[in-house]
Amino acid sequence: MVVSDVELDTLPTVIRQSVRQISSSETKSLPDHTSVSLNHGRPRSPVSEHHAIEEGVPGSSSVQQTKEQIIRARAQFIVTCCCMFAIGFNDASAGPLLPRMQSVYQISFLIVSLLFIFACVGFILGASLNVLVSDHVAFGKNHFLTWVSTIACVLQMIAFTLAIPAPPFPVFVLGYFINGIGSALQIAQVNGYLVVMGHNVNGKVALSQASYGAGAFVAPLVATQFSAMRHWSFHYLVSLGLVTANAFLTSAIFRLQSKEDCRAQIGLEPMEPDTSEHSPFRQIMNLKSVHILAAFIFLYVGTEVTIGGWTVTYIIQQRNAGSNSGYIASGFWGGILVGRIILIPLNSWLGDRLVMLIYIFLAIGLELIVWLVPSLIGNAVAVSLVGLFFGPMFPVALSASRKVIPRWIYTGAIGWITGIGQAGSAALPFLTGAIADAVGISSLQPLLVGMMSAMIAMWLLVPRPSRPD
């Protein structure tokens, strides 16, 4: 193992001397091909999380970028944020439109929930395609990143084009299926690239997720207006415009180049190679932490979209509110946006494992208020605060994943995790709709409390990090 002086200079003198001794002894005793992280033998220092993550990106702490490289890196990051904004806009659009869809198509909760189940199938298919393509294509020799991102945008364009004229409901469902594939591919590529972009990975992931929250905040404001119009489905013209712009930006900024070429253009060194004899797909499927995190994200995203998708219907029917209740969904997604920004220091201070549990317990308490307190204003405030504490959960989970998943399979692994997670955004709202069809929408709150309780159980199963917090 070789430890650079640049990295050691960030540590106190006593620790720095100890680290040099450890590094020297390990270099003599370990064969060249052995991958051992210094993080296992190093005392904790005040720099903790940000330094730990930046060490995972070769060249991130020692390479000086030129002005042109800095500008290009910022452009790449802005494009990833634009992609996340569009995905957030799409995820949060359904809630205010569901009552109008039921009215127009004369369908039950169960039938309208088919939108979610076919989107779920699309998400799983997209996640599987991402992992399989990652397995068979060498990242440094292809155009995988930008080709897949651009194709994902095109699939979303097709889906929204189908939805715009308010076609027969089966065609509408087909559009959701196609959009599910595109969204899964897009999320996998964006998150997979963000974690190898060099400096301040935590901050970039948090801001990209805040972009998702911004899109999700705006969507109900727009969808609520369209839901009262004759041509309610023209809402999807806005979605079409967003993904069309993203297709253009992705092609223009990344120029259909490989991930390694894109990294080289912003002054980063090549990524560490995979020295395993097994294929990336097999490594991902054999890694327990991947499946535990996928299950947690499945529950998290599913619960998040269930709140954003069904709360408006719940408030209208259980609290006798009007159609303007669609703005309550914006309060929830606005809370997510704010939480992903203002709670970043708290995440770093308390650490991934503890802060996640605190957020979930607080969200459960607030959801109990929505369930048991028959106050429209009180419910609206509580829903917004649930969004505030739900906001940082996804970035915190991604932070934990970077510490337990090998870096050379991270893009494929995060594609699988987020793809399965997006499947949750379809499966759990469908389950909620099916149960509501049988026993009424009053079942929403106990279901949400149960989902959040399952999140706690799954989070406790996530392995301890192999790299420090």
Describe the structure.
- With 469 residues, the protein is mainly alpha-helical.
- It folds into two domains: 5-46; 67-459, MFS general substrate transporter like domains (Growth Hormone, Chain: A, Up-down Bundle).
- The protein is 74% helix and 0% strand.
- It contains 21 helices and no strands.
- The protein has helices at 5-8, 13-29, 48-54, 67-91, 94-105, 109-112, 114-136, 144-163, 169-194, 201-227, 235-254, 259-265, 280-286, 288-318, 326-342, 344-350, 352-372, 376-390, 393-401, 410-439, 444-459.
- Helix 7 (114-136) crosses helix 9 and helix 14 runs antiparallel to helix 18.
- It is globular.
- It starts with a helix and ends in a 10-residue tail after the last helix.
- Mean pLDDT is 78; it is low at 1-62 and 137-143.
- Residues 290-469 form the Major facilitator superfamily (MFS) profile domain.
- GO terms for molecular function: transmembrane transporter activity.
- It is found in: Endomembrane system.
- This is MFS general substrate transporter.
- Residues 22-38 have a biased composition (Polar residues).
Helices and strands in order, then pairings?
Elements: H1 5-8, H2 13-29, H3 48-54, H4 67-91, H5 94-105, H6 109-112, H7 114-136, H8 144-163, H9 169-194, H10 201-227, H11 235-254, H12 259-265, H13 280-286, H14 288-318, H15 326-342, H16 344-350, H17 352-372, H18 376-390, H19 393-401, H20 410-439, H21 444-459
Helix pairs in contact: 4-9, 4-10, 4-11, 5-10, 5-14, 7-9, 7-20, 8-9, 8-11, 9-20, 10-15, 10-19, 14-15, 14-18, 14-19, 14-20, 14-21, 15-18, 16-17, 17-18, 17-19, 17-21
